[in-house]
């Protein structure tokens, strides 16, 4: 890579893309000037630092992973010749790192690693100063280019012409220097080459790096004027070497990013007063009067989906599944360095559930009015203020939601006690679990909560409370070790005849299979749980009256998959994996099923689409989410704006239809809605992948083609076809009738004539 250096760079016509090599580093050169002293407004200092693009973005700018290349001291910005002087040593090192590389011992073998600038990040003044022209905020680089015949006058027109493609990651902008040609301002010319790429720049195939990077905090070292603390090459090799020491423990960076992004999505769903650590720039403090109609603080918690309602039932289901997945594959979170994000994700939900359970026989189950909320589409800063809260109590019980919330408290209590090492908080959660289960168990009559709370009936209504009671009792047994809960679960299992019920799938409304799998885990001396788990899982996985597979391989269950196709597949995959840890005889079968469903979700499908927002150019671009959309016109949410204003990183959408088709339309909530319970099983599945000794990259990493374009058959077209068919049948029938009638008339006429002739003869 020659940058700001005389003589053009030539490369062979055929080459292996630099980014595809497993040991190559892709660098970002960051340049900026800033005011170093508050009382000296004219004192300007320039910093040059490198970041490594191979790292997932959530750790890319941590100080241990940032290398300060040099500081250009003030009091004034350097002149052009001084700028070239500052950067020339760096250019020479970059040449050496690219052309010669450096030896590294990785996984027991000696390899040659190389490094090269991938992009330059700077503001417009820095672009003018460093590169000799004005441009956008980021300039992309490529490693291979031949610019003998290019001229700097082409640069800005190329950028303007292809700016949309650059943003979409469809083009790569290369950088090279054309000899000694200088721009009008006297700087060495930086020329850009456009080259169409077979894949998006946002998902290159890159090395897998450990999160345990050696701390290279050069900012703290003393730097003399216009000198490097260390040479950049030395610093980079030290950094890379520290990672190689942990090569055997390395977590796949793509799955690390998926896990982190999923918890970023939960942050995007936060309600209430946000902490300073909030990572979602467009999410604000919101709904700060929730609960005021009952003189109780119900602020905080999570918005349920793409709207601003809060429901206890799906939140409790999500917390239980998030906790369960983390309990089973906590090592996946550890390898990915995501345990603190896990703690915060769970606790943001359980802290609100604690608020919603102010006393033993009271549980708030909904905040917000569905009719009002569904008529608002816009940011969280203008949510309609009329937000009533609804509760169940001993006079109007809700057995299902009380039991489900008790299960969430118990599962999270187990996680905080045994994995997150927070005994005090675990004790608090356990006390709420026991109190709430007692309420669910003793409040009469047993009934579903929507019997008492009609406002929830159109959104989250269950059909039963029986499986939730068993599920909650089993979680309490696991969390407390108190055999009373084990015995109660077993008694209810028999009393409600759960094993003989028609096969159903687990989701927020039904915990039957979850109860069977959990029972097999914690009460393994009682074979009835294992028998039921195998019967139901086999019935779903290997086909039943309601479940089959799409042509692309997605589990499809009629009555469940129609509104959110990926959820039944995820929930079943998670439970199958958990059960496979209990019963080794089912391990191969269930693991294969789960892996296939994971891969389908992550791009191995007919749409070439990972159904996770923000991870690939084919990811859904228009999730049904009021806050992320950036629009305010509820009557035109598909086109206002045409594409989502903010990327909803990590969100799982509803998914494709039965023909594996996905239309990415914001108004099609069945396909593009996002929700708390969509991501809950997904995190467990990703943690499972990270826990493996080796896992291949997600399928989307190797997808280079755009998503196939599909068009939706408009309902009126089918209606017209039906009318046409009916008309054709009618016309044909009428024609046949007329022919028959005429034939009969002719026959009658002929018969009359014959009879008349016979009469004359007679």
UniProtKB/TrEMBL annotation:
<dbReference type="InterPro" id="IPR004242">
    <property type="entry name" value="Transposase_21"/>
</dbReference>
<keyword id="KW-0624">Polysaccharide degradation</keyword>
<dbReference type="Pfam" id="PF00759">
    <property type="entry name" value="Glyco_hydro_9"/>
</dbReference>
<dbReference type="GO" id="GO:0030245">
    <property type="term" value="P:cellulose catabolic process"/>
</dbReference>
<dbReference type="InterPro" id="IPR012341">
    <property type="entry name" value="6hp_glycosidase-like_sf"/>
</dbReference>
<keyword id="KW-0326">Glycosidase</keyword>
<feature type="active site">
    <location>
        <position position="673"/>
    </location>
</feature>
<feature type="active site">
    <location>
        <position position="664"/>
    </location>
</feature>
<feature type="transmembrane region" description="Helical">
    <location>
        <begin position="719"/>
        <end position="740"/>
    </location>
</feature>
<keyword id="KW-0119">Carbohydrate metabolism</keyword>
<keyword id="KW-0472">Membrane</keyword>
<keyword id="KW-1133">Transmembrane helix</keyword>
<keyword id="KW-0378">Hydrolase</keyword>
<feature type="domain" description="Glycoside hydrolase family 9">
    <location>
        <begin position="255"/>
        <end position="685"/>
    </location>
</feature>
<dbReference type="Pfam" id="PF02992">
    <property type="entry name" value="Transposase_21"/>
</dbReference>
<dbReference type="GO" id="GO:0008810">
    <property type="term" value="F:cellulase activity"/>
</dbReference>
<comment type="similarity">
    <text>Belongs to the glycosyl hydrolase 9 (cellulase E) family.</text>
</comment>
<dbReference type="InterPro" id="IPR008928">
    <property type="entry name" value="6-hairpin_glycosidase_sf"/>
</dbReference>
<dbReference type="InterPro" id="IPR001701">
    <property type="entry name" value="Glyco_hydro_9"/>
</dbReference>
<keyword id="KW-0136">Cellulose degradation</keyword>
<protein>
    <recommendedName>
        <fullName>Endoglucanase</fullName>
        <ecNumber>3.2.1.4</ecNumber>
    </recommendedName>
</protein>
<dbReference type="InterPro" id="IPR033126">
    <property type="entry name" value="Glyco_hydro_9_Asp/Glu_AS"/>
</dbReference>
<keyword id="KW-0812">Transmembrane</keyword>
């Amino acid at each position: 890579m020659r940058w700001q250096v005389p003589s053009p760079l030539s490369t062979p016509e055929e080459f292996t893309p630099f980014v595809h090599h497993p040991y190559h580093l892709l660098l970002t050169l960051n340049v900026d000037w800033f005011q170093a002293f508050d009382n000296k407004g004219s004192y300007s200092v320039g910093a040059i630092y490198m970041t490594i693009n191979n790292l997932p973005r959530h750790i890319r700018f941590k100080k241990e992973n940032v290398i300060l290349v040099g500081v250009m001291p003030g009091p004034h910005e350097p002149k052009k010749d001084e700028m070239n002087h500052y950067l020339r040593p760096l250019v020479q090192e970059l040449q050496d790192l690219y052309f010669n590389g450096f030896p590294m011992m990785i996984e027991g073998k000696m390899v040659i690693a190389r490094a090269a600038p991938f992009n330059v990040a700077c503001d417009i003044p820095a672009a003018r100063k460093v590169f000799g022209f004005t441009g956008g905020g980021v300039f992309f680089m490529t490693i291979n280019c031949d610019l003998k015949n290019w001229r700097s006058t082409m640069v800005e027109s190329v950028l303007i012409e292809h700016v949309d493609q650059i943003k979409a990651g469809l083009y790569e902008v290369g950088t090279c220097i054309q000899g000694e040609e200088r721009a009008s301002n006297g700087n060495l010319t930086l020329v850009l080459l456009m080259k169409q790429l077979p894949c998006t720049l946002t998902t290159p195939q890159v090395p897998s790096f450990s999160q345990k990077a050696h701390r290279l905090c050069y900012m703290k070292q003393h730097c003399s004027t216009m000198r490097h603390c260390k040479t950049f090459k030395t610093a980079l090799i030290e950094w890379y070497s520290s990672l190689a020491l942990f090569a055997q423990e390395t977590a796949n960076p793509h799955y690390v990013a998926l896990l982190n992004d999923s918890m970023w999505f939960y942050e995007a769903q936060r309600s209430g007063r946000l902490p300073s650590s909030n990572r979602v720039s467009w999410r604000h403090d919101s709904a700060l009067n929730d609960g005021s109609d009952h003189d109780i603080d119900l602020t905080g918690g999570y918005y349920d989906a793409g709207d601003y309602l809060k429901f206890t039932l799906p939140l409790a289901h999500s917390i239980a599944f998030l906790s369960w997945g983390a309990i089973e594959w906590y090592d996946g979170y550890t390898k990915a360095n995501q345990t603190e994000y896990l703690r915060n994700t769970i606790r943001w939900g359980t802290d609100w559930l604690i608020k919603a359970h102010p006393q033993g026989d009271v549980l708030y189950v909904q905040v917000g009015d569905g009719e009002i909320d569904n008529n608002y589409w816009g940011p969280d800063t203008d949510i309609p203020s009329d937000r009533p809260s609804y509760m169940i109590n001993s006079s109007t019980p809700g057995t299902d939601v009380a039991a489900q919330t008790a299960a969430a408290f118990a599962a999270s209590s187990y996680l905080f006690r045994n994995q997150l090492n927070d005994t005090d908080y675990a004790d608090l959660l356990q006390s709420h679990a026991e109190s709430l289960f007692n309420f669910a168990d003793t409040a009469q009559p047993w009934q579903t909560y929507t019997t008492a709370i009609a406002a929830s009936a159109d959104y989250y209504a269950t059909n039963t409370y029986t499986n939730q009671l068993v599920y909650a009792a089993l979680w309490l047994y696991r969390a407390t070790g108190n055999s009373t809960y084990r015995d109660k679960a077993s008694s209810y299992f028999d009393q409600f005849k759960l094993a003989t019920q028609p096969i159903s799938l687990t989701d927020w409304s039904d915990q039957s299979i979850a109860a069977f799998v959990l029972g097999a885990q914690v009460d393994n001396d009682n074979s009835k749980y294992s028998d039921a788990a195998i019967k139901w899982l086999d019935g779903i996985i290997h086909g039943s009256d309601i479940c089959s597979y799409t042509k692309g391989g997605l589990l499809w269950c009629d009555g469940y998959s129609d509104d959110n196709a990926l959820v039944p597949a995820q929930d079943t995959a998670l439970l199958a994996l958990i059960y496979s840890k209990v019963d080794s005889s089912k391990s191969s079968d269930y693991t294969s099923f789960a892996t296939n469903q994971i891969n389908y979700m992550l791009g191995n499908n007919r749409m070439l689409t990972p159904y996770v927002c923000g991870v690939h150019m084919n990811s859904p671009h228009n999730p049904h989410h009021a806050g992320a959309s950036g629009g305010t016109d509820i009557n035109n949410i598909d086109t206002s704006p045409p594409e989502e204003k903010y990327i909803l990183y990590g969100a799982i959408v509803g998914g494709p239809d039965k023909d594996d088709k996905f239309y990415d339309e914001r108004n099609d909530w069945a396909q593009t809605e996002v929700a708390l319970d969509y991501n809950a099983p997904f995190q467990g599945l990703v943690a499972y992948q990270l826990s493996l000794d080796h896992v291949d990259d997600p399928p989307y990493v190797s997808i280079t083609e755009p998503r196939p374009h599909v068009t939706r058959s408009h309902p009126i077209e089918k209606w017209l076809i039906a009318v046409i068919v009916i008309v054709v049948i009618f016309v044909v029938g009428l024609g046949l009738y007329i022919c028959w009638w005429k034939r009969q008339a002719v026959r009658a006429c002929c018969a009359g004539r014959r009879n008349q002739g016979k009469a004359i003869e007679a």
